[in-house]
């Protein structure tokens, strides 16, 4: 199963090759695009394989668990790697449409590949410390990308992002230390095995709370989200799509992994806290979105509100809720990235994304309007679009568990989401005004819109083929929550030192 | 020994948090350096008391060894922290060149976060 390392290795090698290539050119771009496409192929292959056979394990350096470093790909990891490859491919293609090679920053493509490598390492790693390393690779690339093309106004928004994430990383390091002291190991499978006897230990609950803070900070959980809505709008559209799609979702993924696979399942107090924080995140995020008046700002706040839905499902902590959360992640990454790209195209056409000065887009570019409307309604959760099914599953599970207040909060958040999306629709697309010029002569929007439309088709496919996607999500949820099978798969690998347990 | 280490870690975290909450970005940078050292010390203390243990060198037998894993973790964390600190210093310098100040209160004084084109 050496191929498990490819989602990590391909972007790293591509990044190094692109660095040595130097100046942006058509050939360099082709390399980046081919590499992104290859990553998507590998990820899909990994998904098929894990769907059929369960977790695939690669012991790096050929040392057996729990001594060696493990890469473990189960269906959840494979799904996340597929989504990151897809988002990166779309962001790369959109970036090509937006900028000619002459004005492209030479470091943008290598850094995007480093970012994807860090994200994929976080998804595939089988131990806590490599998760930290994956997070750091991802975050350092994201700091550099955030400030790479920032102008004087933007740069000061970058500093809080960096500072907040550094504090989060430091706390993560402390959490890794505590985990090692408490369980005597950092390997996920080994923690799961040893955790069973420690389930009622209050120290485990304290550790779970520390992880909730660390990964809630990365995911944008209330009240730790304030760094996000100001820093994401400074990114160019394709990077904003990649960030909004993947970075916060790494936090959500890790919470799924920690609470589902690693830590004992008996921590019901922490799960309840997570559900209530998620409810607050939904409401505060969407209210923030309503208060903003430019497209990227509104969309940035919506990330928070959507993260709330995923976290709410994790907090319910049943297998069906996990499946709903995973379905919601799949839907959200596609729709949210695509909305950022559509917003970028609209901003290019109107030369601004301030809603007070936008307009006329529906009349001149109906297909952009169709793409926006479908994705916006999907985000709000209208059937039969993809967002509806995720929300439906979460609401059904919430009603079954009797969490009426949280269900009500999620419904209110959905309605307010629709309202803020209509705000963009009315101002930018519907509104007609003679003074609001639409720069159709800027031919770049045609190619950008092709990317938008293809993302719209993928999102439609998720909505219309919801049953199949939900089956994958259910399988992923089963694998994520099945600690025994996960541990057995990791310990079944024969390598140096197997069988020698202290 | 354990108590002194715990007190030192607590003191460092306290100072670091105090510095992080200041409005000057330079102090935030120092605060980050202090709390990252506190975290490293915390990791080190997680290997337990070193009394009566020998350094972890392969091939020696007999006496119990100090747990080498936290030290490996610290080494990685120091390298990462060093790189990030270097980046942060550069970001701070760029900020100073652009804005002629690194104080958050002055930087964000006239900012209207609801409007941006």
Please explain how this structure is put together.
The complex is a heterodimer of chains A (502) and B (117). Chain A is mostly helical and 502 residues long. Helix content of chain A is 76%, strand content 2%. Chain A contains 20 helices and two strands. In chain A, strands 1-2 form a two-stranded antiparallel ribbon. In chain A, helix 8 runs antiparallel to helix 10. In chain B, helix 1 packs antiparallel against helix 2 and helix 2 packs antiparallel against helix 3. Chain B is built from four helices and no strands. In chain B, 64% of the residues lie in helices and 0% in strands. The mean pLDDT of chain B is 83. Chain B has a single domain, classed as Orthogonal Bundle (Helix Hairpins), CATH 1.10.287.3510. By secondary structure, chain B is mainly α. The interface between A and B is large, with 40 and 34 residues.
Task: List its traits.
heterodimer, A: 502 residues, mainly alpha, globular, B: 117 residues, Helix Hairpins
Blueprint (SSEs and pairs):
The complex is a heterodimer of chains A (502) and B (117).
Chain A: H1 6-21, H2 26-53, E1 56-60, E2 69-73, H3 75-98, H4 108-124, H5 128-148, H6 152-183, H7 188-195, H8 202-219, H9 228-231, H10 237-262, H11 268-291, H12 295-316, H13 319-350, H14 361-364, H15 366-380, H16 386-401, H17 404-430, H18 444-464, H19 466-481, H20 483-491
Antiparallel strand pairs in A: 1-2
Helix pairs in contact in A: 1-2, 1-4, 2-3, 3-4, 3-10, 3-13, 3-18, 4-5, 4-10, 5-6, 6-8, 7-20, 8-10, 10-12, 10-13, 11-12, 11-17, 12-13, 12-16, 12-17, 13-15, 13-16, 13-18, 13-19, 15-17, 15-18, 16-17, 16-18
Chain B: H1 2-20, H2 25-45, H3 69-99, H4 104-107
Helix pairs in contact in B: 1-2, 2-3
């Amino acid at each position: 199963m050496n191929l498990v390392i490819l989602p990590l290795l391909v972007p790293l090698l591509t990044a190094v090759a692109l660095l040595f290539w130097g100046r942006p050119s058509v050939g360099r771009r082709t390399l980046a695009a081919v590499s992104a496409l290859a990553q998507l192929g590998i990820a899909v292959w990994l998904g098929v394989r894990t769907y059929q056979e369960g977790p695939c394990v690669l012991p790096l350096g050929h040392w057996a668990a729990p001594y060696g470093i493990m890469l473990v790909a189960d269906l959840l990891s494979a799904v996340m790697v597929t989504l990151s490859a897809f988002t990166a491919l779309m962001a790369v293609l959109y970036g090509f449409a937006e900028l000619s090679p002459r004005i492209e920053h030479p470091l943008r493509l290598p850094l995007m590949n480093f970012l994807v490598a860090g994200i994929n390492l976080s998804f595939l790693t089988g131990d806590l410390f490599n998760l930290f390393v994956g997070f750091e690779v991802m975050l350092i690339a994201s700091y550099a990308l955030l400030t790479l093309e920032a102008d004087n106004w933007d740069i000061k928004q970058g500093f809080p992002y960096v500072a907040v994430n550094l504090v989060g990383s430091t706390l993560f390091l402390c959490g890794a230390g505590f985990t090692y002291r408490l369980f005597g190991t950092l390997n996920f499978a080994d923690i799961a095995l040893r955790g069973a006897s420690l389930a009622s230990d209050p120290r485990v609950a304290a550790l779970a709370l520390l992880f909730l803070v660390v990964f809630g900070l990365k995911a944008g959980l209330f009240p730790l989200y304030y760094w996000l809505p100001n820093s994401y709008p400074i990114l160019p559209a394709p990077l904003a799509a990649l960030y909004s799609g993947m970075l916060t979702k790494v936090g959500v993924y890790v919470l799924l992994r920690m609470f589902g696979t690693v830590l004992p399942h008996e921590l019901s107090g922490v799960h309840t806290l997570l559900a209530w924080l998620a409810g607050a995140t939904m409401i505060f995020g969407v209210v923030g979105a309503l208060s903003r008046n430019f497209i990227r700002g509104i969309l940035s706040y919506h990330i928070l509100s959507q993260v709330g839905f995923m976290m709410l499902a994790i907090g319910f902590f049943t297998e069906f809720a996990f499946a709903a959360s995973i379905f919601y992640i799949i839907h959200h990454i596609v729709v949210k990235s695509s909305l950022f790209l559509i917003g970028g195209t609209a901003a290019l056409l109107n030369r601004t994304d301030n809603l007070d000065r936008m307009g006329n887009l529906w009349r001149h570019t109906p297909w952009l309007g169709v793409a926006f409307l479908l994705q916006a309604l999907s985000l709000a959760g209208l059937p039969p679009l993809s967002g509806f099914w995720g929300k439906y599953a979460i609401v059904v599970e919430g009603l079954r568990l009797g969490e009426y207040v949280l269900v009500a909060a999620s419904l209110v958040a959905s309605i307010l989401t629709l309202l803020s999306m209509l705000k963009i629709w009315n101002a930018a697309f519907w509104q007609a005004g003679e003074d609001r010029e639409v720069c159709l002569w800027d031919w770049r929007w045609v190619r950008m819109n092709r990317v938008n439309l293809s993302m719209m088709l993928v999102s439609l496919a998720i909505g219309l083929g919801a049953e199949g996607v939900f089956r994958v999500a259910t399988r992923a949820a089963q694998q994520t929550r099945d600690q025994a099978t996960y541990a057995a798969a990791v310990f079944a690998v024969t390598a140096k030192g197997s069988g020698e347990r202290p | 020994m354990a108590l002194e280490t715990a007190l030192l870690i607590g003191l460092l975290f306290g100072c670091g948090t105090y510095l992080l909450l200041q409005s000057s970005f330079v102090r935030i940078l120092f605060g980050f350096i202090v709390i990252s050292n506190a975290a490293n010390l915390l990791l080190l203390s997680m290997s337990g008391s070193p009394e009566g243990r020998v350094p972890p060198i392969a091939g020696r037998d007999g006496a119990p060894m100090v747990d080498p894993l936290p030290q490996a973790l610290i080494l990685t964390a120091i390298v990462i922290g060093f790189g990030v600190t270097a980046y942060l210093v550069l970001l701070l310098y760029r900020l100073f060149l652009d804005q002629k100040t690194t104080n958050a209160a002055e930087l964000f004084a006239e900012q209207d976060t609801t409007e941006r084109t």
